[in-house]
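Re: weekly structure request thread

Next one in the queue (410 aa):
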Amino acid sequence: MKYLTAMYISLSESLGIYTPDQLYELFTNKQHSMPISRHRAAIMQSRVFFFCAIFAVLVPTWSLIDLLFLPSPLWAELLVIRILSAIAFIFLAWQARKEPDLNRARWLLAGMLSITPLFYLVSDHWLQAYELSGTEQVIAELYALLPFVMIAGLTLFPLTLKELLFFATPMLAVVVLSSLPQVKSDIPQAVSTIWLFSLILGVAIFASLNQLRYMLSQVNRASYDVLTGLLTRRAGIEMLDLQFRLSLMSDSPLSILYLDLDHFKTVNDIYGHDAGDVVLRTAAQQLNDVVRKGDSVIRWGGEEFIVILPTAAPNEADDVINRIMHAGLGLRPDGAPVTASIGVAEVQADAVNDWKTMIELADHRMYTAKIQGRARSLGVNQAELLWPVAATSNKLAEKSVAQHEVAEES
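Done, posted below.
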């Protein structure tokens, strides 16, 4: 038991696993964020494209070797399935150039991995029908390596354990089926073949999971703000671009909220940046807790936040704003409620052509809300919502500002 525990710790450390959540992330993608899923999909599709493009050339080209060493009837039979396989690879390569999507990437990888085992099963059936010897037999035995090549190829894909088992199980079944001994003397060969395949599969699983773990750490570091845990501006731009295109494709509404915390500079000036960091973290946590499932909150910069509301019409955006206002964004160090000025934009009601215009429009409305007294939102058709504690909060905040200005002058 002690040996197994030490082995588990060593394996966990080699994969960079230190918490149950990190282990769960390697088992399934249910907890993976949108940036991670998109990044995985992009990597998987680009590598599927590369392999399919290569195989589309190499598979039919190999027929020249078959022509030199195999009987003509057998060469003609193999040429047919080689051409069909090449056509299938070309189709998969073409599909892999489309917009990255995790489900599409999985099916493309499944398609690529299924072509070779099917090719092997058909070719093995035809090869068994001929009496081959010498060089012919050597060429024929090379076909048996195809499943091994494909299982080794899994090392280049960042896959979860669940996905790896899904892709590897059919290939393992093909190897076991093709290795079943016909006579007792074939048993050692069958056992060694299955053992070798299992060994390569184990290496592939370890390499793929290690690649996924590294990718998760890098994407999380680049996509999430260290202070607030929200999406960074860079990751948020990718999300905005994706959601905007999805909105246009499905002709569905899409709203964004542009929030700027009121009088935040005075918190840093009077109470210090540590106190300001606490205010930012609390506001970010409150936003995350209040928005709908499927919405995205971005730290746009400093004390500015953007909330993406997919499928939300202006009235639904107002519902989210009301929840934010009533839940609050925490308290300032002086005990006053934290409020924000909010600008709203919606793709259909505002008839915008790109997400950058949406941002500019929401930013302009946020700035107008600040001019009109802060602690309020300004939306489509100048629709205005006031923070429930607007008067009290602004009075306390303005008092702090005045006291700070007096202190500076003296």
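Confidence is low (pLDDT under 50) at residues 404-410. The domain at 233-409 is CATH 3.30.70.270 (Alpha-Beta Plaits).
Next request, please.
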